[in-house]
Design a protein that fits this description.
Elements: E1 27-34, E2 42-49, H1 56-59, H2 61-66, H3 74-81, H4 88-97, H5 109-124, H6 137-145, E3 150-155, E4 161-167, E5 172-178, E6 187-189
Antiparallel strand pairs: 1-2, 3-4, 4-5, 5-6
């Protein structure tokens, strides 16, 4: 950041630094501003780094660990949950670090994508019988593969609602049928 002492330009205390926050972990941050590296006159600002659009399913570390059940073995989840509760967030960070596509940054895009899919499944695939949307077949497929390339909705010969999800990149088609009219849509083919 370069500051000038030009009188025509007003002094500001707020700065926008592009692509800087991806390199920061959540928590306390101290920003020190000085005229040069050699000067003793410095201003220090204490701030908090906060992930404002963090997926809701990631905000509770215990829930986030349990939500790994769609992609991970029970033994791994049990091991993570056996840690002290105060270490759950650290356990999550360690787990996702090995899958981080950009390990030199603090932000893990894959972790964000996974928990965003969990959130979407929870909101959009819950049933009227009270089944958690992520635990439905459509939720599990969405969590694993993401948004389908296309969705075709129709009725079968029995009058039941049928959804066909097509994933072009994966060369995969999944057929779901709402057999009971509850919005559960079990997977029947795929």
């Amino acid at each position: 950041i370069v500051l000038t002492s030009d009188i025509k330009i007003p002094m500001y205390r707020n700065f926008i630094v592009q692509d800087f926050s991806w390199k920061l972990n959540q928590g306390s941050l101290i920003i020190t501003v000085s005229e040069s590296k050699r000067t003793l006159k410095r201003d220090t600002f204490n701030r908090e780094v906060f992930w404002f659009n963090m997926p809701f399913s990631l905000r509770n570390p215990e829930f986030a660990i349990k939500a790994l059940k769609y992609i991970e073995k029970d033994s791994v989840i049990s091991r993570m949950l056996s840690a002290d509760e105060s270490r759950y967030r650290m356990e999550l960070q360690e787990y996702w670090k090995k899958y981080d596509p950009t390990p030199k940054t603090a932000f893990n895009e894959l972790m964000k994508e996974y928990y965003s899919r969990i959130d979407y499944a929870l909101r959009n695939f819950a049933t009227i019988t009270g089944i958690n949307g992520a635990d439905t077949d459509r939720g599990k497929i969405y969590i694993k593969y993401g948004k389908p390339s296309s969705i075709e909705r129709s009725s079968n010969q029995n009058g039941k609602v049928v959804e066909l999800w097509i994933y072009k990149k994966e060369n995969l088609s999944c057929m779901f049928v709402d057999k009971k009219g509850t919005g559960e849509f079990p997977l029947v083919k795929g």
